[in-house]
Amino acid sequence: MSLKFNAQKGRQGENIARDYLEKLGYKIIEQNWHYSKNAEIDIIAVDNNTLVFVEVKTRTNLNYGHPFEAITQNKINKIYTAISGYFNNCEKRYKSFRLDGIAIIGLNNPKIEHIKNLGQY
């Protein structure tokens, strides 16, 4: 598979996740927020008074494993580096924050799985 196809698939999955979160009442603040070359947050949203950082993983099928298998401890550490950078640049304060994971399986009629408080510290 080409990198271009994977990037398009990832962006499509992030848009599906964004729509899903908006339907749940989340307010989307950012999408694809970059802190550095290696630290990016797919979606930043607000759920009530909680700032939510969301890692989205998309697979067209499960032939190469479940999307959540791609969220390794190393990936979580990079996300927390980006979260730290976000807070250093964020003027608004929130009561709490969390890291969620969203798995998108299939792009036509996708199955969406959402885990709250992924990789808690």
Description of the structure:
This protein is of the alpha+beta class and 121 residues long. The chain has one domain: Trna Endonuclease, Chain: A, domain 1 (3-Layer(aba) Sandwich), CATH 3.40.1350. Helices cover 31% and strands 36% of the residues. The chain has two helices and five strands; from the N terminus they run αβββαββ. It has helices at residues 3-23, 73-89, and strands at 27-36, 39-47, 50-59, 96-105, 111-115. The chain has a five-stranded mixed sheet with strand order 1-2-3-4-5. A hairpin with a 2-residue loop joins strand 2 (39-47) and strand 3 (50-59). The longest helix has 21 residues, at 3-23. The N and C termini lie far apart (35 Å). The model has no long low-confidence stretch (mean pLDDT 90).
DSSP E strands, number: 5
- The largest sheet has its strands arranged as 1-2-3-4-5
* Terminal Cα span: 35 Å
Architecture per CATH nomenclature, i.e. the level-2 architecture:
3-Layer(aba) Sandwich
- Provide the number of structural domains: 1
